[in-house]
Amino acid sequence: MYKILILTVFHLVTLLSAQNNLLLPDTLNGEIVNLTLQHGTYQFYPGLDSKTMGVNGDILGPTLIFNKGNYVDIFVKNQLEDTTTIHWHGMHVSAENDGGPHTTIAPGEIWNPHFTVLDKAGTYWYHPHLHQKTNEHVSKGIAGFIIVRDEEEAGLNLPRRYGIDDFPLAIQTKTFDNDMEIVVPSNSDSVLLVNATINAVLNVPAQVVRFRLLDGSSQRVFNIGLSDNKSFYQIGSDGGLLSNSNELTRLQISPGERAEILIDFSSLEGQTVYLKSYASEFSNGIYGATNPGMGQGMSMTGYNPNPLNGNDFTIVQFNVGSQTDNAITEIPSSLALVNPLLEASADTTRDFILTATTHGQNALNGEFLINDAYFEMNIINEVIPLNNVEVWSITNQSPIAHPFHIHDVQFYILDRNGSAPNLSEQGKKDVVLIKPMETVRFITEFKDFANDSVPYMYHCHMLTHEDQGMMGQFVVIDESVLSITDDQISVYQFELFQAYPNPFNPETNIEFELKNPGLVSLAVYNVLGQKVATLLNESMNSGVHAIKFRADNFPSGIYYYALISNGQQTVRKMMLVK
User: Fold this and answer.
1) Which CATH number is associated with domain 343-480?
2) Distance from CA of residue 76 to its chain's centroid?
3) From 16-20, 79-83, 200-204, 493-497, the region with the lowest mean pLDDT
4) Do domains 343-480 and 482-576 have the same CATH topology?
5) How far apart are CA 221 and CA 259, in angstroms?
6) Domain 482-576, CATH class in plain words
7) Cα 537 from Cα 548, distance rounded (Å)
8) Domain residue spans in the chain?
9) Disulfide: which of 72, 316, 481, 522 matches 200 by Cβ 3.0-4.6 Å?
10) Cα gap 40→212, rounded to integer Å
C-alpha cells in the first residue's frame, strides 16, 4: 500500500506534465490471421520499463478487420509462460471457436479457430478468458479490437478510414507499484490509459470523426462526455449500428461494453476538445463513484483515496487540425435496420439473481454469486434448445453494479425495473450494467450453433468478480438430431426419475418405479440416437429400483436414458461433464 500511495502522488504530478501521442494499433485482415501471445516490456512512463503481455507485440494487439460473410482461419500461438485462452467478445461463433475457459492454449501450443463471420458491422474485441487468470492477462496487456464491416454499413455516409477519421479507443485503468509493475488484482487503479497511453493526445481533422469506444477496464465504469458539454452522436452499441444516430452529452459504458460515437469537429479547427468521464455524476453503487457501494460506510480495500473516484477527469485530448480530403461533414440520421425480438415470441424465461457472499460494510470486499452458486468447470448451469427465444431476467441484490455479459448471442433489452431502455440501449447488446436492487430483462435467440460438450459462458465482466467465480455456463443442444423422443407415459405403468447427480462424472444413479411386474429394458443413447449402453434387459418385480451408470469411457456430452416396459417407453436426459 505504501508503494502505491507514493506512486499516486507521482501520477498526479504526471497528469500535470507530459502528454503522449495516442498509440494506434496496427491492423490485420484477410482470410488467414496469425496472432502470437507474448511477454514484453513497455514504457508507460518515459524511461521506466514495465513487464507486460501483448499480441504480436509488447502491449495490446492488432485491430482485426473482418467482413461479414467471409471465412477466417486464425492461428493463435501461445508464447507465454502460462496457459491462456482467447475469446472473441461479442461475436456469434460456435462454442468450440468461442475461446472460453474450456478452450485452453498451453504454452507453446497453437489454437486454430476458424469460422464464417456472421455478425453485422460493429466493434467487437478479443481478450483472454482463462478462469482465475482473466484479470491478470487482460490487465497486463492482452486485448485487441475487432472491426466488422458489411454492405449495409458501407452504404452509409460514415467515416471509416482507420487512423484518419476512424479511431479505436480502449479505455482502461491500472495500478502500478513503485517498481512500475502492474498490480493485479487491485482497487487502487488511479492510472488512466487509452490504447496503453497515459495522458493521451490525438490530432484530429476538422470534420466528423468516428470513435470506437471500449471499456477495457477490470472494474471501472465511465460516464463519457465532452468538455463544455458539447454534443456528440452515438451510432452503435455492442452488436452494431443503431437504427438512428442519438445526440447525447453523456454516455455510460461499463467493463466489456463498446459504443461507436461521432464527434463533429468541423467548426473547431485550431481548438482543443477533451473527451472526459464525468464520474462526479455517478450515484452510489457504481465502481467509479465516490462510494462504490449502496450501503452507508461501504468501501473497498484500496479504493480511496483515488483522484478518479467521484471526480471528473480527462480521457483523451483532441487537437483539431485541418480538414482532410473527402471529409464527412454531416451526421447521418438514419443508420441500420434493427429488428428487436418481441417478448411474445419467447419460448421460456430464465431468472438469475446476483448476490454478495459477505454482508454489512465489508460486503464489497467479498465474493459475488449468480443464483447462489460459484462457477464450476464441470457443472452446466443451463441447457438451452437450439433456436429457443428466451427472456433472461437478471436481478441484482448486491450493493454494487455488475456488468452482465453473455457469450454466443446479442440481446435486446426489454426493460429496467419495468421501464423501457433509453435510446443508447435499444440496439444489440452483449453487456448490460445492472445497478443495485435493479432488475434488467432482455430477450435473445440461440440460433445457428449447438454443441452438447463445449459450453458458453455468462458472467459479471468486472474481471475480479469473474475470476472469483461470478460466472455460469450453458450448452445449446439440437434436439432435432435425435431419433428417440420424450414420450409421456402413464404413471400407472411405471415412472422414470431424473438421474442423480446430474450433471455427473463419472457415475450417476438412475431410479424408476414399476407399478406392475414385467420385462424391463433400460438403455443409454447419445445425441445421435445411437445406443451406447444396455443397463437392464430382464424381468423385474414391482417397486422402486436403482441402477448405477458409470461413464468412465464415454466423452462429455448430453445422453438419454430410455426405459421400456409393457410395450411403453419414456426417456430422460442427463449430462456427463469431465
Assistant:
1) 2.60.40.420
2) 20
3) 16-20
4) yes
5) 13
6) mainly beta
7) 15
8) 343-480, 482-576
9) 316
10) 26
